[in-house]
Design a protein that fits this description.
mainly beta, 5-stranded mixed beta sheet, about 40% strand
């Protein structure tokens, strides 16, 4: 069954559950992260407060070694975090700068996740167009060392990867991907897939395996 946990949010796009049961919500167009607290554990958030503001289309959220990481459309930043904290203290520290911002339609979302061993930070970067050939890091999942250094493409040919998660208890990375437009009502399906180092998923030349998109000439 489903029930309302919180309402009155302006543009909720991503959630992160914290160790004490608090929930962070990225209100993207407002440039803020909102903290929702259900103190009596009745399934309804009694309080709603601004945890951090002044961000640039924040989306992805991750907690790692005492820091809350936030993926803006053009960067990854972090705030110091202690369990139970209601508000970020100080200015955000930039971990990854100069990520290509915005993108085709809703492709401004940047999602992040740390590997189970904590050594690698993964981030999604959507395409800038519907089906044009683009340069790295567009249409990829990027990998960084945990400190945000040593950027490299982990998987490519993903038009707009959005969700990222590790299968619990494993080192398997999974992702959702939003596929290309204007090929008919049944094409092209979005998909969920396991992702491994060096995988190429076809965009923009191919879709759903070996199906060639003849509109792409290069």
């Amino acid at each position: 069954s489903a029930a309302v946990f919180a309402k009155g949010l302006a543009s909720p796009r991503w959630l992160l559950s914290l160790p004490n049961g608090d929930v962070l919500c990225a209100e993207c167009y407002q440039g803020r992260i909102t903290l929702l607290r259900d103190a009596d554990r009745n399934g309804v958030a009694e309080t709603k407060s601004v945890f951090a503001s002044g961000l640039n289309l924040p989306f992805g959220l991750a907690l790692h070694e005492g820091f809350l990481y936030v993926a803006n459309t053009n960067s990854i930043v972090r705030f110091g975090y202690q369990v139970g904290q209601l508000k970020a203290v100080g200015k955000p520290e930039t971990v990854v700068a100069n990520i290509p911002s915005l993108g085709y339609n809703m492709h401004w979302t940047r999602n992040i996740v740390f590997s189970p061993d904590g050594k690698t930070l993964y981030a999604t970067v959507g395409s800038e167009t519907n089906r044009d050939v683009e340069k790295n890091p567009r249409a990829t999942i990027q990998a960084y060392d945990s400190n945000g250094k040593n950027a490299r493409p982990y998987a490519t040919g993903l038009r707009n990867p959005v969700g990222l998660a590790f299968r619990p208890g494993t080192s398997e990375l999974w992702a959702t991907c939003v596929e290309r437009d204007y090929m008919g009502e049944d094409l092209v399906p979005d998909f969920v897939t396991r992702v491994s180092q060096g995988d190429f998923f076809g965009w923009p030349w191919f879709y759903i395996g070996k199906n060639r998109d003849t509109r792409v000439k290069n």
